[in-house]
Amino acid sequence: MSTAKSSPLDSLYDVMQGNETDVGGGEGNEGTYGSITQAGMAQVLQCMKERAGFGSDSILVDIGSGLGRPLMHGFYEGMAKGYGLECDAVKCEKAVKFCKRVVSEACSKGLLDRRYCALRTRLVFWHVDIEQLTGLPDEATHAYSFWEGIPDPAKCKIGELFTQSQTLKAIAVVGRSLGRDPAQRMADTFGFGRLTLLGKFGASMAGSGRSMTAYVFSK
Ligand SMILES: C[S@@+](CC[C@H](N)C(=O)[O-])C[C@H]1O[C@@H](n2cnc3c(N)ncnc32)[C@H](O)[C@@H]1O
What we know:
Elements: H1 8-22, H2 38-52, E1 59-63, H3 69-76, E2 81-86, H4 89-108, H5 119-122, E3 123-127, E4 142-146, H6 152-164, E5 170-175, H7 182-190, E6 196-204, E7 211-218
Parallel strand pairs: 1-2, 1-4, 2-3, 4-5
Antiparallel strand pairs: 5-7, 6-7
Helix pairs in contact: 1-4, 6-7
The protein binds S-adenosylmethionine.
S-adenosylmethionine binds at residues 31-35, 62, 64-66, 69-70, 85-88, 91, 129-131, 146, 148-150, 154.
């Protein structure tokens, strides 16, 4: 018999799982759906905290945001505000419902601070195709993007907009290996300009367990 006690973060992920089912799953009309596991996301945010100043004043933008799961984890870490950018209308609609329900249930269970109940001031979704974007939210300080299913031209657009942003100081990307010199590859292939690699670790996809690599970069 297992004696492992579940943590509040485990409970938040349970709340997310229940509500994902209730909103009809994370699938939409187009694009891949999926998130990395709780452990992988925790490692990404820990690296951002330790090496890129992620904290209570931070504003995270998830580029290709699906249901908004990484943003819920960001709230658990105490960040100030989140943005989700997503091209699929169905996922956007589900995300609004999902996040409202997760925040409400998690606040009532004491898993999230009550200040997040004022969700409208804390979370903004943009229904947008990254390739059509002219700028990232001009108050975002940190970015996250899980690249599975995001086409290369959209990744290049992220590179261009991240480089132009006056406020973004770090980005985490999760996907296939970027080879031996990830910062150089981000610059050469996706137009990110000069980056510093802050962290690199294995992350698996929730559900399928597919192996991915997570990278955290600063400008
Ligand atoms: C692998 S999922 C990651 C979802 C979310 N970030 C997470 O980790 O749970 C990638 C998301 O990017 C979205 N996406 C793909 N191409 C896009 C584009 N050009 N513009 C905006 N969103 C896009 C997909 O619809 C999908 O929801």
